[in-house]
Request: fold
Amino acid sequence: MKKLYTLLFLLAALTVHAQVNPKLQAKLDQQAAGMEAKVIEWRRHFHESPELSNREMNTGKYIADHLKSLGIEVQYPVAKTGVVGLLKGAKPGPVIGLRADIDALPVTERNSLPFASKVKTTFNGQETGVMHACGHDSHIAIMMAVAEILSKNKNDLKGTVKFIFQPAEEGAPVGEEGGAALMIKEGVLENPKVDVIFGLHIQSGRQVGSLSYRAGGTMAAADNFSITVKGAQSHGAYPWMSVDPIVVSAQIITGLQTIISRQTELTKDAAVISVGRIQAGIRENIIPEEAFFAGTIRTLDEAMQDKIHEKIKLTATKIAESAGATAEVVIRRGTPVTYNDPALTAKMIPSLIKAAGANMVFNVSAITGAEDFAFYQKKVPGLFFFVGAMPPDVDPNKVAAHHTPDFFLDERGFLTGLKAMLNVTVDYMYMPK
Ligand code: NI
Reply:
């Protein structure tokens, strides 16, 4: 199998080599290197002044001002605090969307960096720090540099670049719309119509200087479900007088596990069902009338996703029925699968190799976390890849995960991300159609 992958990899690399002439490539590489310090400076600025989802007022304004200073046509605000920039190349060609997410998280930073966040706020009624604990600060900085470099090379661009600086990737506050879905609703993929979209995510747990990708399902669809089991109440001493919703719930939860372990073809793709909440009863000797539990469903393939949803309904209602109870199942679809178009992915591998070197580009396993870039990929083909930012001397098993107070990025990874984003954009423009 490994040989087959290597072969595919080489084929992909050979079929679409050298989209851009070496002179332009050298210029882009040089300009990227020349902007590295600026990218780090911008990143530190955003890191020090993080803003929560749908509250990225200063962040959005800062980005909009930068794009305007480059002579890029700017739409601001979009989807509350987002920024859309349009850069038209001198020559005709495709419309390429480049997306960076811009929001921070309610996490209190524990790093002692000079630019560590000291911002505090109230979130869901609790006092909390605010921190760019997922690295979106680096995404903004990289994309601002991409915009600056591409605007300098307008005459060599074949087509149009649409810069999409998107708020609320982490999810809008309760009761608010936001994120990629709202950007799309407000027309970000239209006028001009976006043909293809690229996005990246920095990773604290992968080697600095590396790039990683996966064709097909890359990050999971995240759907929620809740199940209410209704039985009949009785004294705990006389269970035969009840229809016990707690025992029925326990059976359903066990039954749900067999959907993944016995009924899902796991060699195709991974899938997860986790129950994270359960509630029933008020006193130890009363069998209650009702029980409630809720969980999350993670899938990487749309057909599997639909099938698992159906099986959850079937398993819950039939187990309940067998006990004389009822189960009401509610499934809410959330973020779709982050699906990298396989043909597009194969075409862009050489662009990643040019940025990081062949020995630093990795074909990786899927992630069961979700990413709202997926909403764009439902509409247009897209590629979402990963940029390593783990210091070389660190044990990968001890790295602080994303969304945690010690989350840390090795800033030397940003240049690789910048080069990769420039390469996929310009190479795509020069690709024979
Ligand atoms: Ni993130």
